[in-house]
Amino acid sequence: MTPPVIADAAGTSKATFTSTYLASDTLALDWQIQNWNNSHSLSKDTGEDRILMINSLNNVYIGRSRLV
Fold first, then answer.
1. Number of C-alpha atoms within 13 angstroms, CB side, residue 36?
2. Which of 11, 22, 39, 68 can pair with 6 through a Cys bridge, CB separation 3.0 to 4.6 Å?
């Protein structure tokens, strides 16, 4: 089942995993899921970050391949 869309940045940053498997030790043995955003660099006048990017635990989704 596809998880619902989170409509705001605060909700996305605070979101948890979309499934218990993603939080399991089994997955953690081979993968590390990152949780970060670039909000700290948006206010600086460096000209690099102009769009808010959020990499949260909720952004990870694994589904069945349609090729199978």
1. 6
2. 11
Q: Classify residue 58 by burial, with Cβ atoms within 10 Å: 0-12, 13-18, 19+.
A: buried
Report pLDDT digits (tens) over 36-57.
888 877 766 666 667 888 888 7
Residues 2, 50: Cα–Cα separation, whole Å: 29
Q: Is 28 helix (H, G, I), strand (E, B) or coil?
A: helix
Rounded Cα gap, residues 49 and 51, in angstroms? 6
Asked if 6 contacts 48 with a C-beta cutoff of 8 angstroms, the reply is no
Of 15, 18, 61, residue with least CA distance to 37: 15
Residue 47's identity, in one-letter code, is: G
User: Reduced to 3 states, what is the DSSP secondary structure of residue 47?
Assistant: coil
**CB neighbours (10 Å) of residue 30?**
6
